[in-house]
Amino acid sequence: RAKPVVTQQLSTAGILLAAGAGVRYGMPKALAAGGAWLRLGVAALHDGGCGDVVVVLGAAHGDVADLPAPARPIVAVNWTEGVSASVRAGLLSLHDDAEYAVLTTVDTPDIGAAAVRRVLAAARASESGLARARYGRRPGHPVVIARRHWPALLDALTGDQGAGPFLRSQDGVVAVDCADLSSGIDVDEP
Question: The whole model's pTM is what?
Fold first, then answer.
């Protein structure tokens, strides 16, 4: 009799970047549409396969009343330094059992769970453990990064740039077409 194959479910954490002041938008995007963008981002990550969802807040941390389950808020105290501070705060807040981090932004409200699932599956199936959504020729979110890359990513983070420069420096990043699922456009103006 053959032994049953036991598969280990890899833990995946989602990071919703929502710390900025939204200067061009006129308000922190974490508060946009009465908090609907924030709720959509949390749902996309959770329903897309993230058991742990961290919402990185900054400018609006005192104004975000309730986060939908299972999200937990963290504050990037140095959020004014740019996106790098938010990515760093998000990664450093993840539990030790997280094997993958899925990053997305609050200002891409049309990205849903299907895109998260697709990019996550590509990262898990790849040797690199790195995958990024594409919308036509434009890279976008979500981005998936395996834990083994987190130290190098943390070292590479600087200023108002997220994981993009790090990903461009890596071999084997899987580009995952998600244009059939959403626009992937960052909403920068009302």
Answer: 0.93
DSSP state, residue 77: T
> What is the rounded distance in angstroms from the CA atom of residue 119 to the CA atom of residue 133?
6
Specify the 3-state DSSP secondary structure of 65: coil
DSSP H helices, 93-139, are: 113-125
DSSP 171: S
Model confidence at 68, in pLDDT bands (50, 70, 90)?
A: confident
CB 176 within 8 A of CB 131: yes
| pLDDT one-digit tens code per residue, 164-188 | 999 999 999 999 999 999 999 999 8
Structural tokens at position 105: 């932004």
**Hey, how many other C-beta atoms are within 10 angstroms of the C-beta on 125?**
10
Instruction: Provide the CA 105 distance to its chain's centre, in angstroms.
Output: 6
Find all residues with CB under 8 Å of 17, minimum gap 6, and list them: 56, 83, 86, 87, 90, 103, 104, 105, 106, 162
